[in-house]
Amino acid sequence: MAVDPTEQVAAWLRSYLGFQRAEFVSALSGGNSNLTWQFRDGARACVVRTPPANDISPTSARGIQREAEILQAIADYPVRAPEVLGWCDDNQVIGRPFLVQEWIDGVAITDALPAAYSESSDGVNRLGESLVDNLAELHGVPTDLDALQKLGRPDGFVERQIERWLSVRKEHGVRELPELFALGEWLGRNVPPPSAPAVIHGDYHLDNTLASKDHPEILAIIDWELATVGDCYLDVALMLMFWGDYRTQDPPAFSALQAVSRRSGVLSRRELAGRWAEKLGRPLHHMNFYMAFAFWRLAAIIEGAYGLHVAGKLDSDYARGLEHDVPALLAEAQSAAAGDW
């Protein structure tokens, strides 16, 4: 009989972290492609992050290792992120590496505010300000730390992304999307001059944070497997693209992401961008480009999932929705390039 991997992890927690019982509580939702498990030992709790057993590859394992390295590197800075409690790369335990983090008793907010919050736009605005402030703290971490030297290649990052996704979509096209290629070529011709690199999250939006249950405040940024050293404007644009009640497409792509911000009276994208820029002393001269790039890149990436759906390999509400969502993202990218965001 196969041994339950959660039992093996519990044994490791007892042996290496001094847990007395280390009881498995549940699997947690979210976390991109990785598994997230909660364990408890009396009043103490922790979270374990590991790749799924049926998707063990150098890339997936590297994502968890990257998360551990980033979190350890920024631990001495005022970035709200889980503390690393342990790291196991012994494949004899469960067959793949896993990361142990502190448990943060917060809530992931999507389309509804916690009961203790005010239902007015003021609560959402305070949440948005906290979201931006925490991102600014991350972008203020020095990039010359020894632990960060092997992470990322900030020079030419945007250019490489454009070239990569244009190439992938040309090779693996499943429908006619001329605007994807036209806009990709426009982006390639209009890459802004390089700015000072920063530590970036890579997938920063409200859904990848934990907020207080009692008042509008971000307690922790989670899901760090895409973090690197790169262009911090990409983080800002990704967060902003799903924020607020203004979208150029009706219905917009991925209307559930940051859906709690879709109400009148909520701070605009430009107001939040200005708050971030003021905190870091960075200009916002090229935000039309970065907003367009954020919409375009996501469209180029997820078109691959739509291809799997067309081929009969992926059938879900998410996959079916890509028939609309990808063109909608491209339309929003075109609007953003013209300054309409």
Main beta-sheet strand count, sense and barrel state? 5 strands, antiparallel
CATH superfamily of the domain at 105-145 and 198-239 and 255-281: Aminoglycoside phosphotransferase (APH), C-terminal lobe
Which parts are unreliable, with pLDDT below 50 for 5 consecutive residues or more?
Answer: none
What is the overall shape?
A: globular
Write up what this structure looks like.
With 341 residues, the protein is of the alpha+beta class. Among the domains are: 5-102, Phosphorylase Kinase, domain 1 (2-Layer Sandwich), CATH 3.30.200; 105-145 and 198-239 and 255-281, Aminoglycoside phosphotransferase (APH), C-terminal lobe (Aminoglycoside 3'-phosphotransferase, Chain: A, domain 2). Helix content is 43%, strand content 12%. The protein is built from ten helices and nine strands. It has helices spanning 5-16, 58-73, 91-94, 121-139, 157-171, 178-189, 232-241, 269-280, 287-310, 317-337, and strands spanning 23-27, 35-41, 44-50, 84-88, 98-102, 198-200, 209-211, 218-221, 228-230. The strands form three sheets. Strands 1-2-3-5-4 form a five-stranded antiparallel sheet, with helices on both faces. Helix 5 runs antiparallel to helix 6 (178-189) and helix 5 (157-171) runs parallel beside helix 9. The radius of gyration is 20 Å and the shape is globular. The termini are far apart. The model has no long low-confidence stretch (mean pLDDT 93).
Provide a short characterization of the protein structure:
With 341 residues, the protein is α+β, with helices and mostly antiparallel strands. It contains ten helices and nine strands.
